Amino acid sequence: MTTLVQPWNPWMRLKSVRPPLLLLFAALWLGACATRNEPPAYANVPSTDDDDAYCRQGGKVAVGSPDYVYCRKDRDAARNAAVSRADRKQKDLAEWMLNHPN
């Protein structure tokens, strides 16, 4: 009885490696899209945690005094204005991109 030995075919090995390799490249490509590390537009707006310390001014202003209340209102208004500016800037960019598709 003779056994037939087929010649070595390098294409057979490539066919078996191709699907896992394509899967690896697809996972890397999608992973890169999912990890965009861009901070939000309002990231540079000061947080509310600092407001109390800022408005107390080292213990010179008592909590509940008119100066303290004015300071907190001023800080809130400044934060809201910054967030509104960032939102408007984002909307303007989206509108510009829709109007200039090329």
Q: What topology does this entry show?
A:
Blueprint: H1 10-34, H2 49-56, H3 66-99
Short description:
By secondary structure, this protein is mostly helical. The chain contains three helices and no strands.
Textual characterization of the structure:
This protein has 102 residues and is an all-alpha fold. It has a domain at 46-102. Helices cover 66% and strands 0% of the residues. The protein has three helices and no strands. It has helices spanning 10-34, 49-56, 66-99. Helix 2 packs across helix 3 (66-99). The radius of gyration is 30 Å and the shape is elongated. The N and C termini lie far apart (70 Å).
Helix-strand makeup class? mainly alpha
The overall average pLDDT, rounded, is: 77
**H/I helix tally:** 3
Helix content: 55-70%
Low-confidence stretches: none
Write down how many β-strands occur, each being a DSSP E stretch of 2 or more residues.
0
Q: Write down the Rg.
A: 30 Å
Shape: elongated
Largest sheet: none
Spell the H/E element sequence.
HHH
Strand content: under 5%
Terminal-residue CA separation = 70 Å
What are the key terms here?
102 residues; mainly alpha
